[in-house]
Amino acid sequence: MHEWLANLPKIELHLHIEGTLEPELAFELAQRHQIALPYPSVEALREAYNFADLQSFLDLYYQCAEVLRDEDDFYRLTMAYLERCHTQAVTHVEIFFDPQTHTARGIPMSTVIEGIERALKEGETRFGISSQLILCILRHLDEEDALATLNAALPYRDRIVGIGLDSGEQGNPPSKFTRAFDFARAQGWKIVAHAGEEGPADYIWQALKLLKVDRIDHGVRCVEDPSLVAHLRDINMPLTVCPLSNTRLRVFHSMAEHNLKTLLDQGLRVTLNSDDPAYFGGYMLENMLAVQEALNLTQAQWRQLTKNAIDASFIDHAHQQRLH
Ligand code: HPA
Ligand code: ZN
Known about the structure:
Elements: H1 2-7, E1 10-16, H2 23-33, H3 42-47, H4 54-64, H5 71-87, E2 90-97, H6 99-103, H7 109-127, E3 130-138, H8 143-152, E4 162-166, H9 178-186, E5 190-195, H10 201-209, E6 215-218, H11 226-234, E7 238-241, H12 243-248, H13 260-265, E8 269-272, H14 277-280, H15 284-295, H16 299-312, H17 317-323
Parallel strand pairs: 1-2, 2-3, 3-4, 4-5, 5-6, 6-7, 7-8
Bound molecules: hypoxanthine (HPA) and zinc ion.
């Protein structure tokens, strides 16, 4: 089964590019830019990846992102991720980036987008990996900041497929961003939002009703509201589930307790993704192997997860047919 999973073509729909920063590259870039990281060595940094919850991860994730300064840093970060994708038979990726993490430090949006895009183009020609970019709004900041960020992204409107919502969920409900997402939809962008990761089922309802999302990122806490589960099934709403992330951030105590298989069995449109692979112990294949070991899915269920991801992707129908 391991070999079969390794060779299975894969689609990734929930991946934060800043979350692919491996400690080795973080230290190399820190040295290059003469920046101090909060830990003295690669080993000490890796040991700090023992998170109590989402916020304790985010604190470190934002600190490490400070080493990303110039276009070449974003290029190298993205290229390293695509090389991993190539070794794991990942054929299509939809990548989140967090511009506010960088623009707040004086780094222009153009530096971020152009560095990432240069790698994506190279990934397409060298490895045949197709890709899309999704700009994520940081929900711990206010709606004015979100609107300013969306306005600053307008020159890149056609190079971004959608807008997402990430960062600390508790206390930052989707309702805080209704106007920003109205604006995003009016630009023709697709909409996604992290909801029901640490936050309650009600945040999933809000993402559906107020932000009018095309996909829910995570969504695993939907099971706390049976009427929500029924609704998600009725509207065939994709959920981008991230198993290693959920166990590392203690949304579930262990992989054996993860509800991915239950959600699939309930007929929900579940996809499997890696979220922040450098921090959570693995990329697509490691996520699949951890799920397989704990939950023992059938080959038909794995095919279903891949089919769900193709159908939930933001690529045109003809391209989707080619991935099937
Ligand atoms: N949740 C919320 N925000 C994030 C995450 C996540 O899993 N990863 C990076 N930003
Ligand atoms: Zn995420």
